[in-house]
Design brief:
The complex is a heterodimer of chains A (250) and B (298). Chain A is an alpha/beta fold. Chain A is 40% helix and 23% strand. The longest helix of chain A has 32 residues. With 298 residues, chain B is of the alpha/beta class. Chain B starts with a helix and ends with a strand. Classes of the chains: A alpha/beta (250), B alpha/beta (298). At the A-B interface, strand 8 and helix 6 of A face helix 5 and helix 9 of B.
């Protein structure tokens, strides 16, 4: 049925329709931004030198105030209770020790989702047999008590002699200045370090398991569609900062 | 410790990292408290250890030991003090972190970002730095880098002065560059080596004109105002607090003796690269490595 509107009411009706549409659009935008603002993104990939660059990257990708980049796992731990609905990007090893979170995106690098960790020394005198009483440098990428546990599980050594730092560069400096006898690094970090030093590096032990790259997880695996779509469009430069090439859904 | 911002930054980080198991009470050393006041505060708080930041705090602790010998046994952690090991001679039961950016860190970081390979670095130093220079030589040898050093005040027959040091540096420069093939110079944080006179005459007047890169442990030297150094590094104070907290935990939680802990170098740095100076001297960098630089002056 075709209903004809009286022409004298037409312009009034048109103005009303336009106003109504404006309201609808406004409500949708507001609702979307409310939903999105609830899905805050917390990013913590310890070891990265320049968290500000990562913050700038995510501000550009998601808009200002939508993402918080943290340099240290302790800062992430402190924020979690206040923001239980937040999506988190961190090392997969971090989520292994965190209850109630489910992966929504898995980081990949050269088609792999994980890599081995190595214990590396710069002296022939340091071996897997005598390392348990020596000092070992490691990135502080897990909550305080979990790092010794990780080291014990992966390398079967007592974690009492760990020297923790927050930047990847500092691992090489500690090894070079003989402050530690060995360092624990991922295979990718090892390649980077190997290319920047002339120290006679040696792998003295390899982790029991392959450890995942960066991943994104939320409580019960719920993530806002908009955030998910935006994350899947993450530029290569930001992915590189996270130590991955791409995201994939688990 | 003095109440200034940079000391607070380190203390905040120590507090944060150490956690609720530790209580910190601050005595502002710039208010010149008497030794009795310090002793009374330590006793009333049941101090398990002393954190000493800056030379004034170290000197106060030395006085404290003389005033009451029971303080000799108290563990003393020394941070943010230049030439920490020398400055704390006579202080008992001590450990700490040397405050100077290690030559090893400065040089290897500069090599990582530089396109040109280099293996010979020149340094002028005063004798109070002898031990650290010798240690740097040993460590950098493993990185296949040689340090060519000239002590500016080791000659017993000559008075140590800015003028004498400058004469010696000027006299040594050509030999270091032409014969010893020095490819870059380090300016240490030492006013005998860097001062208004040497800055104008030697560092900018001669070395920069020879297109030889200068790297330094004084941030100001890479600032646009001075433009003497192409690359500088300062201790990263937040990370220094983290390192300090680990050291405190090593003693109190892992029960490692202070003697065994000893003094360790500052690990983490904040670096500055001045691209104008780099252009002036024609020094190029690896773009993919510049992410590790804290501040790039463009």
């Amino acid at each position: 049925m075709l209903k004809r509107i009286d022409p004298k009411f037409h312009h009034v009706n048109l103005r009303f329709t336009k106003a109504l549409w404006r309201c609808v659009v406004l409500i949708v935008v507001l609702a979307a931004s409310m939903v999105f603002s609830q899905s805050k993104l917390l990013i913590c990939v310890p070891g990265k030198q320049n968290t500000q660059r990562l913050q700038n990257g995510f501000d550009t990708l998601l808009g200002p105030g939508k993402a918080i980049v943290l340099g240290r796992i302790k800062e992430l731990q402190a924020l979690l209770p206040a923001d239980p609905g937040a999506a988190i990007i961190s090392n997969k090893a971090f989520f292994n020790y965190l209850q109630g979170y489910t992966y929504v995106l898995i980081g990949k690098k050269k088609n792999q989702t994980s890599e081995r960790y190595f214990m590396v020394s710069a002296s022939k005198e340091i071996t897997k047999e005598n390392i348990s009483e020596k000092k070992v440098g490691v990135i502080d990428f897990l909550i305080k008590d979990q790092l010794p546990r990780f080291v014990f599980e992966q390398f079967n050594i007592n974690g009492n002699f760990l020297k923790r730092v927050n930047k990847e560069d500092d691992l090489l400096m500690m090894l070079g200045m003989e402050m530690v006898d060995a360092i624990i690094v991922s295979a990718s970090q090892y390649r980077d370090i190997f290319s920047t030093t002339k120290l006679p590096l040696m792998i003295i032990a390899t982790s029991e398991n392959s450890i995942g790259f960066a991943a994104c997880a939320t409580r019960e695996g719920k993530i806002d569609d908009g955030l998910m779509k935006t994350l899947l469009r993450t530029p290569v430069s930001i992915l590189k900062e996270l130590g991955i090439d791409s995201w994939e859904k688990p | 410790m003095p109440a200034e911002g940079r000391f607070q930054t380190v203390l905040e980080e120590i507090r944060d990292q150490a956690g609720p198991g530790y209580h910190f009470s601050v005595i502002d050393i710039n208010k010149n408290p008497t030794v009795k006041t310090i002793a009374d505060r330590c006793k009333s708080n049941g101090a398990a250890g002393l954190i000493l930041m800056d030379i004034k705090a170290v000197n106060a602790a030395l006085e404290l030991q003389k005033y009451d010998s029971t303080f000799r046994a108290l563990p003393k952690f020394v941070f943010m003090t230049l030439l920490a090991e020398l400055s704390t001679a006579g202080l008992s039961n001590k450990a700490g972190i040397t405050f100077e950016v290690p030559v090893y860190t400065l040089v290897t970081t500069f090599r990582i970002i530089s396109r040109k390979e280099f293996s010979r670095i020149g340094i002028f130093y005063s004798k109070s730095f002898t031990r650290s220079i010798e240690e740097s030589k040993r460590l950098l040898e493993k990185e296949q880098i040689s340090i060519i050093s000239v002590c500016v005040d080791c000659n017993q027959n000559q008075k140590a002065s800015v003028d004498n040091a400058l004469v010696l540096m000027n006299d040594s420069l050509d030999r270091m560059v032409a014969k010893e093939k020095v490819e870059a110079f380090i300016i240490p944080a030492d006013n005998l080596i860097v001062n208004s006179q040497s800055l104008v005459e030697l560092w900018i007047g001669k070395i920069k004109k020879k297109h030889i890169p200068v790297i330094a442990t004084i941030d100001l030297l890479a600032s646009p105002k001075f433009g003497a150094a192409v690359f500088t590094a300062d201790p990263d104070l937040t990370q220094l607090g983290n390192q300090a907290a680990n050291l405190i935990a090593e003693h109190f939680e892992n029960k490692t003796s202070m003697g065994k802990i000893g003094f360790e170098p500052t690990i983490s740095i904040k670096s500055t690269l001045n691209t104008h100076v780099a252009e002036d001297i024609g020094w190029k960098f690896k773009d993919e490595q510049l992410g590790r630089i804290t501040t790039i002056i463009k």
